[in-house]
């Protein structure tokens, strides 16, 4: 009897808990997922380009980790957007892309045309700035009432903070300076 009463109280408490509301198109959560999808797509593109030219094992390993991790997150975000009946994100204009730490078309081209060592260093610099942009994007959503989005924002923050430390270490070993951080990034 006590067990049944306990189950009944527990069930009532569960039912009384607020359920996360599906985010609506145009909400901060949907915009974050849309923008982060586009952002991740570029990180995957940069990593694939780096894997085609890089010879340094550390650079290749990091590029592969970033590619695989962000492809997986993109699959999750695609599924969420479908479930929420929200469209995929669109490419940002140049100003917004710069604020997101994204590489320009010329930056991407340089990964194909620079000599190997310089292309590796350019990848490290571009990815560092790219990750800094992701941190700026994720920070406001870490406390979202939408658990999936808050979890993703925290995961992006943790993963990419760690990868920035690795990027810094690799840049330091090469005697290379990082690119300036995106606008709004504290040093």
Automatic annotation (TrEMBL):
The DUF305 domain is annotated at 29-170
- Known Pfam families for this protein? DUF305
InterPro entries, per the entry: DUF305_CopM-like, Ferritin-like
Report which superkingdom the organism of origin falls in: Bacteria
Q: Kindly list any coiled-coil regions of this protein.
A: none
The protein in question is named DUF305 domain-containing protein
